[in-house]
Amino acid sequence: MTDWIARAREVAAQLAVDAVERDRANNTPYAEVQLLKDHGLVTLLGPAEHGGGGQTWETAYRVIREIAKADGSIGQLLGYHYLWAWAARLVGTDAQIAAVEELYTKNNFFFGGAVNPRDSDLKITQDGDELVYHGHKSFSTGSKVSDLTVLEGVLEGTDEHIFAIVPSKQPGIVFHDDWDNIGQRLTESGSVTISDVRVPWSDAAGYVDRKFQPLVYNTLNVPTIQLVFTNFYLGIAQGALESALAYTRERTRAWPYGGDDKASATEEWYVLEGYGDLQAKLWAAEALVDRAGAAISPLLHARREELTPEARGEVAVLIAAAKQRIVDTGLEIGTKIFELTGARASATKYGLDRFWRNLRTHSLHDPLPYKRREVGDYALNGRLPEPSWYT
């Protein structure tokens, strides 16, 4: 793991140089994704026999976090890529897993996904031995920087959801330049129109003879990506605190009207107290996030048939707890740092606002009170969350 974290930190150092300017410019991050590819981070989870890193999810989560410290958008892109690169393992057959992992690993391909469950599902029709996808999705993270896109839709006349992995660059997929939110600005999360995208029935993930083969393991998709969120939230919060500390060391002035005057802001009592409180809370959140990563990684890498509903539920509760803790802590850090750095730190050239904007934007993905309820129901009643699109 250590070597991969060091590699991620090298990439993060390059991203940090112009992170503020790139956030403001809001350009498609082709160069940033290429940087991830050039350093082998895109194929970190790929099989070693195909040139991949052969690493675990525990390592992948730590790498996401390191990238997000420098640039929350790129951390999100990488985290979503890891989830979608694992999609074949989550729902596919053994043959599909082998084919997809060889394809993306050998070619260093980057994944995007058009699978937002709050939208109307894409419609799927049959045409002989092919499935045909049609529709519109409001969000397609990774869109124009992706090589492969995960699609999900409902087969006409049924309630069957079918996932498929298709090339992103084709006439039937049109990505729209309409992502213009206050945070996570470089995630290419705009809408997409899908028209006559054809997939052989043999590529319908998890289907054998046109029948889906269910496993409890299929339901790990939500806890896995919820912990992706949690880790890039943690990275954003860590980046915010580190940036604020550096600013205070270099620029913040002591307050000369308090009756306990200090020569440097680094000796100012309220500054020390403020940073001490934030650092303690962040360390606590980090410990919980690491615990969640250590819990889910063995499940993701074990034989898929071995996963029980109880094991899945236990790790989902732990991830829900970690997510609520880092969202609360991260948002507090994103606001409080301005009280500790001083008025001049609010200048746009420093970009300290981007951390709060990034975390605030993505933490609205699904309502945090539902995560608190899941944990409370488990603590009080011993009930595990039922698998859904968001639990």
TrEMBL record:
Gene3D superfamilies: Acyl-CoA dehydrogenase/oxidase, N-terminal domain (1.10.540.10), Butyryl-CoA Dehydrogenase, subunit A, domain 2 (2.40.110.10), Butyryl-CoA Dehydrogenase, subunit A, domain 3 (1.20.140.10). Residues 8-97 form the Acyl-CoA dehydrogenase/oxidase N-terminal domain. One of its GO terms (molecular function) is flavin adenine dinucleotide binding. Residues 228-365 form the Acyl-CoA dehydrogenase C-terminal domain. One of its GO terms (biological process) is L-leucine catabolic process. This is Alkylation response protein AidB-like acyl-CoA dehydrogenase. It comes from Amycolatopsis thermoflava. Keywords: Flavoprotein, Oxidoreductase. InterPro entries: Acyl-CoA_DH_C, Acyl-CoA_Oxase/DH_mid-dom_sf, AcylCo_DH-like_C, AcylCoA_DH/ox_N, AcylCoA_DH/ox_N_sf, AcylCoA_DH/oxidase_NM_dom_sf. Signal peptide: none annotated.
